[in-house]
Amino acid sequence: MKAKELRKLSAIELEAKLRETREKLFRIRFRHHGSPLKNPLEIRNLRRDIARTFTIMNEIEQNKREEKK
């Protein structure tokens, strides 16, 4: 998912998306240990999606803290 799309989501939706992506990564890693994936880059893309989601969540949190000052 692109950063622009993530920025449109609320905090609750971001947390749900993060949970969903982590579960998907877990399932793919588990399946990968049994037999090789057709597209091993999928693991990298999911890790990057998780990092991107965390970044957006931290930006939102930082903006909230700055508004309070």
Overview of the molecule:
- The chain has a domain at 38-69.
- It contains three helices and no strands.
- The chain has helices at 3-7, 11-34, 41-68.
- α2 runs antiparallel to α3.
- The longest helix has 28 residues, at 41-68.
- The radius of gyration is 15 Å and the shape is elongated.
Give the fraction of residues assigned to helices.
over 70%
Can you count the beta strands?
0
What's the tally of helices?
A: 3
**Radius of gyration (Å):** 15 Å
What sequence of helices (H) and strands (E) makes up the elements? HHH
Uncertain stretches: none
Straight-line N-to-C gap: 32 Å
Mean residue pLDDT: 93
**Based on helices, strands and strand pairing, what is the structural class?**
mainly alpha
| Main beta sheet strand tally, sense and closure | none
Shape: elongated
What share of the residues does DSSP label as strand, in percent? under 5%
